[in-house]
Design a protein that fits this description.
Shape: rod-shaped
Largest sheet: 4 strands, antiparallel
Order of helices and strands: HEEEEEEE
Oligomer: single chain
Mean pLDDT: 80
Strand content: 35-45%
Distance between the termini: 92 Å
CATH class of one domain: Mainly Beta
Amino acid sequence: MWDPFEEFDRALDMPGRGVRGFVPAMDVYQDKDNVYVETALPGMDPEKVDVSIENDVLTIKGSTERTSEVEDKAYYRKEVQTGSFYRSVALPTHVVGDDAKAECTDGILKITVPKADEVKPKNIKVEVKKK
């Protein structure tokens, strides 16, 4: 019997189609000084996650492994995501990637990237001159 999910899985395993995995959701927001990126990476070892910034594009990649596997693979439902992931997102402004910081707390990875000085708002004081 034809199973569309099995066909989809087979397509993901085809050469040239990339590594089987998942795509974590991201929140990207900013204030006047920084751009922030948050993504949930439950069950991942934060030390096995790579974060890089090049040309104002943030890339996060890593992998997660299942430590125990059920021998009988007749799953009724299998939704827990395992495997590798790769996610890139263009940041909304020019940033100083060398000064970025990443921290993981309770499975939430938060990346803080300072904005480049040329894009930060500048306040200019108006001088009042008397005649």
